[in-house]
Amino acid sequence: MTKDANGRENGKRFRTPAYGRRPDGESTRETGKTRESGRPVRYGRTEAREESAEKQEGKGLENELIEGRNAVAEALRAGRALDKVFLARGDADRTLSFLAALAKENNVPVVECDRRKLDAMSVTHAHQGVIAVCAVREYCTVSDLLAAAEAAGEDPFLIVCDEITDGHNLGAVIRTAECVGAHGVIVPKRHSAGLTTIVNKTSAGAAEHMPVARVSNLRAALQELKDHGVWVYGTAADGESELWNTDFRGPLALVIGSEGDGMGRLIRESCDFVVSLPMRGKISSLNASVAGAVVMYEVLRQRSGV
User: Fold this and answer.
1) Which of 84, 87, 190, 238 is the most buried (most CB within 10 A)?
2) From its phi and psi, is residue 52 left (phi > 0), alpha (psi between -120 and 50) or beta?
3) Could you tell me what percent of the chain has a pLDDT over 70?
4) 193-219 b/e with 16+ CB inside 10 Å = b?
5) Which CATH architecture has domain 55-134?
């Protein structure tokens, strides 16, 4: 049987990729040891990180907040594109419960938070326990992204963001994805930046052109992609396959991990291949959006036949 550079056999999925080697003591398949620094790869999601993500939601959003119960209710009834609805935690008011149910019916994530968080976000200082954050455009589905690739007569090239919470990073990822000709970006509903004004501004307007799908379960979305013949490539500092030794031709989805923890354990297990970037300096990692850009352009180079 023949195998390609990534260990694919007869067109079937083959879980063991070609292993890259780093000159600075990178992990090996045989030993399973971490690099010489001895620092373990972190997969946990901490409360501090979630709190930081919530703070990001409230920065620079003055022009895209809808405050007050009636205003949020009408926005939901009108089908307004909303990124999230924040509700005061512990408030037993029936109106807030109704708004939570209405938001879920409209597929809008509901985030319960301390009332002080709402006070900090509020511009009117009359939020009545609820603030909605508007999205700059509608989200689409994973099926829409696959259909767009098929309509273009191209192999799918999708970018998956695993809990990137900083809007500037997400905007940078979307900008690069648009520049390299990706067919879309996938983000999770929770613990992730959404299509806010900050993201749109950082993307230099690319968010207006790049389709973004938002999913409830990222692992299930990756399985859906696999079921459609898409290969899933993760990125990690201790990835087994070095960038230059990895074959990116064919239908693929590239997973970019979060700013602090990288890919989550379950997401990493869902990847067919985990790719590392060559590092020659004293710093052992790159910013999430920068690392993603490097890999995206290598994908473009290979897909262009260069």
Assistant:
1) 87
2) alpha
3) 79
4) bbbbbbbbebbeebbeebbbbbbeebe
5) 2-Layer Sandwich (3.30)
Contact 240, 213 (CB under 8 A): no
Whole-number pLDDT of residue 116: 92
d(CA 200, CA 245): 34
Residue type, 246: T
142-303 belongs to which CATH class?
Answer: alpha beta
Cβ burial of 19 (10 Å; 0-12, 13-18, 19+) is: middle
The Cα 83–Cα 106 span in angstroms is 11
Domain chopping of the chain, boundaries: 55-134, 142-303
Which band of pLDDT confidence, cut at 50, 70 and 90, is reported for residue 136?
Answer: confident
One-letter amino acid for residue 75 of the chain: A
Q: What is the pLDDT of residues 268-292, one digit of tens each?
A: 999 999 999 988 888 877 889 999 9
